[in-house]
Inverse folding.
């Protein structure tokens, strides 16, 4: 598959991750279209984070294959096309907001001028412009989450892999985060987000329900609700989950 | 540009240190503190040791018609009073009691016929050899050796004054280390030890932080690879190691008046190599810990062997032969040996190349393992 010769920013075929006898991701077929927000939903241990980490090259693939923007994982060139925001804050608390952003910008070979321009725009975007010189250790939890998002955006990647970015974030900030995500999407970029908050899932263009390493259902929020005849995505997930168990697929 | 990618990590390590005054203090103050504490504690010579003299010597007449000579008095007067604090007592039992009570380290007892016997020995006439009885507290071997050496020196000085030459002489010529003090020997050792200890500790703690905070994963999800990260740290800590060595050398020269006769740049190269080995070891050990508290638990296993086996305080030859192989797997051993040879003996790279080769091999080995320890996480 050639780069850009696909409509999918992320495509996995029979992707497997095993730890000894335990299968964390079990023959996952996933397709994330360019320019969409795709939500991977599921309980803890469903394999969401493992999937993201395989796409980032942080974990080796045990079986199947995964492609990011047409390049097969692992490929070091993919790193430049990904903005990865892990579950943890994952910032240097002893560095200032600017120093953290500059560090990640430098890694991607950005010039000082580029870093300054992008940092200015991004800090305004997340409303932290006046905190530029502050040590990250002195910021509130919500602020740290926002800086973490900026660090994954500084090199303007076409794909954002966000691993439970709103865990531990207060409801008000979670709304702001989704505003940011929609803005990013409006710039034509793709977001693959993992979450176990069902209310957030309704904000995604498409959702994939994961359980025990498998993708048990996929579609737009409305499609999934219609298919299950339920009112909310939590019930829809439970229906698919029960159905899968009944059919003996788990 | 790509080849120097690791410098981004190096720069970040320095930024982190610049912002973190506590770590900066650890890097700057701790080695000086270690050196001063050990230097002052070990560097001073044994002085003011209380000894009791029982002088029962009646003296003798050396030449017909001459006055009475007391060799015991002359020997006591030749004792170095900076080292020995001499007190007199009348009899052997009292002197022994004072040693037994810990009131004195030794009792020096001159028998009644001491001078007479000595003179007879010198003249070659029959008689038992003159002997000094030394009741010695040998529980502190350092002090005991000093007392024995001081008495021997006084004895030789007295014989010299009396124009009596001992039958055998050892003529010592200092090939290296003429007038060398303990601190001259000690500074290169403590320089290597301080750099090893602080670099390993700092990398270990920092890297456990990188792992637990998620920054390591975040870095590895960028265009940086495991090698870049390890190289970035290695570069930063080798520069820091050189800085520490410069600092320690300055303190050694200015405070402890040490003498350096060799090329210090070569010594700095050795210390930089040791710093690279140490940081790689720190990264490697960090993979065994999930939290900083766990990381600290492995530290005694890193620090103590180096402290005791690397030849910092005593030569490796003084370590039991069966234990000596362990000395050769402790990285500071080679740095101590090489920097001491450079600074004290003025040796060049042509003579210390084995030490340098050992450090380079260890650096390559531990750097490879450090990179692999980061890669293992992907499995």
């Amino acid at each position: 598959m050639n780069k850009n010769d696909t409509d999918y920013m992320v495509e996995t075929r029979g992707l497997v991750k095993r730890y000894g006898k335990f299968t964390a991701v079990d023959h996952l077929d996933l397709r994330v279209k360019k320019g969409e927000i795709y939500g991977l939903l599921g309980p803890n241990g469903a394999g969401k984070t493992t999937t993201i980490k395989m796409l980032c090259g942080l974990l080796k693939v045990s079986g199947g294959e995964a492609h990011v923007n047409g390049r097969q994982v692992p490929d070091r060139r993919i790193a430049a096309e990904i903005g990865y925001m892990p579950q943890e804050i994952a910032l240097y608390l002893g560095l200032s907001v600017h120093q953290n952003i500059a560090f990640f910008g430098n890694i991607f070979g950005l010039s000082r001028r580029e870093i300054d321009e992008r940092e200015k725009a991004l800090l305004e975007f997340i409303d932290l412009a006046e905190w530029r010189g502050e040590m990250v250790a002195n910021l509130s939890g919500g602020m740290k989450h926002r800086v973490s998002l900026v660090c994954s955006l500084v090199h303007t990647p076409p794909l954002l892999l966000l691993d439970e970015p709103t865990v531990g974030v207060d409801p008000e900030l979670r709304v702001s985060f989704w505003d940011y995500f929609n803005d990013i999407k409006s710039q034509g970029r793709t977001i693959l987000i993992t979450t176990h908050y069902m209310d957030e899932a309704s904000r995604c263009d498409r959702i994939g329900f994961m359980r025990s390493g498998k993708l048990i259902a996929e579609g737009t929020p409305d499609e999934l609700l219609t298919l299950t005849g339920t009112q909310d995505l939590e019930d829809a997930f439970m229906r698919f989950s029960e159905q899968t168990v009944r059919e003996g697929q788990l | 540009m790509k080849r120097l990618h690791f410098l981004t990590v190096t720069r970040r390590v320095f930024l982190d240190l610049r912002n973190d005054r506590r770590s900066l203090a650890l890097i700057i103050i701790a080695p000086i503190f270690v050196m001063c504490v050990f230097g002052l504690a070990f560097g001073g010579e044994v002085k003011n040791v209380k000894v009791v003299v029982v002088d029962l010597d009646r003296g003798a007449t050396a030449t017909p018609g001459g006055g009475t000579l007391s060799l015991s008095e002359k020997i006591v007067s030749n004792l170095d009073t900076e080292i020995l604090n001499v007190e007199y007592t009348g009899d052997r039992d009292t002197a022994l009691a004072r040693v037994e009570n810990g009131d004195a380290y030794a009792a020096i007892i001159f028998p009644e016929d001491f001078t007479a016997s000595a003179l007879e020995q010198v003249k070659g006439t029959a008689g038992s050899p003159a002997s000094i009885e030394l009741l010695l507290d040998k529980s502190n071997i350092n002090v005991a050796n000093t007392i024995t050496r001081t008495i021997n020196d006084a004895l030789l000085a007295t014989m010299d004054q009396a124009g009596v030459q001992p039958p055998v002489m050892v003529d010592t010529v200092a090939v290296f280390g003429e007038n060398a003090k303990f601190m001259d020997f000690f500074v290169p050792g403590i320089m290597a030890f301080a750099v090893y200890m602080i670099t390993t500790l700092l990398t270990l703690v920092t890297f456990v932080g990188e792992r637990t905070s998620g920054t390591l994963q975040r870095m590895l999800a960028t265009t940086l690879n495991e090698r870049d990260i390890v190289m970035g740290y290695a570069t930063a800590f080798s520069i820091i190691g050189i800085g520490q060595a410069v600092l320690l050398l300055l303190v050694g020269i200015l405070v402890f008046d040490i003498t350096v006769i060799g090329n210090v740049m070569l010594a700095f190269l050795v210390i930089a190599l040791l710093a690279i080995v140490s940081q790689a070891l720190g990264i490697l050990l960090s993979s065994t810990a999930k939290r900083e508290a766990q990381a600290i638990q492995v530290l005694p296993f890193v620090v103590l062997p180096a402290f005791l086996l690397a030849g910092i305080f005593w030569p490796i030859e003084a370590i039991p032969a069966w234990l000596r192989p362990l000395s050769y797997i402790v990285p500071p051993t080679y740095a101590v040996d090489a920097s001491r040879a450079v600074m004290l003996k003025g040796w060049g790279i042509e003579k210390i190349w084995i030490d340098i080769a050992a450090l380079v091999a260890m650096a390559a080995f531990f750097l490879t393992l450090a990179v692999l320890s980061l890669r293992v996480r992907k499995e």
About this structure: Residues 24 and 232 of chain B are 18 Å apart (CA to CA). DSSP finds 14 helices and six strands in chain B.
